[in-house]
Design a protein that fits this description.
- The chain is mainly β.
- It is globular, with a radius of gyration of 18 Å.
- The chain contains three helices and 16 strands.
- Strands 1, 2, 5, 6, 8, 9 and 14 form a seven-stranded antiparallel β-sheet that branches. A four-stranded antiparallel β-sheet has the order 11-13-12-16, with helices on both faces.
């Protein structure tokens, strides 16, 4: 299988030092040593981040086919934030909820195909909620609203378990390009590990886009790549930050389908 060519001239930034436990999947794992708090990073041969050109054109994310896999073990919102802070400077990386199988069949050495045959829907203690169809007007906000005011307004409209919980706000690559549009990812730690299927069921019929609750659906984590001379449409210091809530984790009840109702 022919690999994608490298995308040239990516805007490079120095990554912060590592602060969380990580594991490169250079060899197969066994069920005995799998950890249950994993964030799976996929590393492509091409940039996965959006590119914004000088004329305002936005080139979409590359899909990629073959990926290397790095797993980050996170147990707190602080550890999750440290991972995301590093990944925002890695345009070739993205995150998925799937966890690499002990014996993935579609591989070429330490390169893996991003397909469900290689990844399990393992219950995990974190979730990313994608907000893509809201406006400042719908949220009752002025056009010059601060980033934290936007996030707090969105949190009030989330499914109940997420409304007053510590979170990480990550504004997406297109935030600020269209006046009045809110494009936001909110990351949470969960009180109890959940599968993609659980999260999709819980967040249905809400403002949350449920498409990221698929085993191998990319969660794009890098800052946009800006062509020479292009100024950021959204301030870098407001691209990724933490907000406290009353609860450190989303307080899901014991695993029972009736208790996963969002309201």
């Amino acid at each position: 299988m022919e690999l994608d060519n490298e995308q040239q001239n990516c805007r490079k930034k120095a990554a912060p030092p590592r602060t969380t436990r990580e594991r490169n999947t250079d060899r197969d794992s066994t069920a005995a040593n799998r950890e249950g708090n994993l964030v799976t990073e996929l590393i492509a041969k091409v940039a996965m981040a959006k590119t914004i050109k000088a004329d305002g054109t936005v080139l979409g994310e590359a899909k990629g086919y073959w990926f290397k896999v790095r797993e980050h073990n996170v147990e707190t919102i602080g550890e999750l934030y440290a991972v995301l802070e590093r990944l925002r400077h890695k345009p070739k990386s993205c995150v998925i909820r799937g966890v690499l199988k002990a014996d993935p069949p579609e591989r070429d050495g330490d390169w893996y195909v991003r397909r469900k045959v290689n990844f399990d829907d393992t219950p995990l203690p974190w979730a990313m909620l994608d907000i893509d169809d809201l406006t400042y007007k719908e949220l009752g906000l002025p056009t010059d609203a601060r980033a934290d005011d936007i996030v707090n307004a969105v949190r009030k409209r989330l499914p109940k378990a997420f409304r007053d919980v510590d979170c990480i706000a990550q504004f997406s690559a297109k935030m600020g390009m269209r006046a009045g549009a809110v494009k936001l990812h909110l990351w949470f730690m969960l009180g109890e590990s959940r599968t993609c299927h659980d999260l999709e069921y819980y967040c249905r019929n809400s403002i949350v886009d449920i498409s990221p609750f698929r085993v191998v659906q990319p969660h794009y984590t890098a800052d946009p790549i800006l062509a020479e001379g292009v100024e950021p449409y959204w301030p870098d210091h407001d691209r990724l930050f933490r907000l406290d809530g009353t609860h450190p984790t989303a307080p899901f009840r014991p695993h029972h389908r009736k208790q996963l109702r969002p309201n």
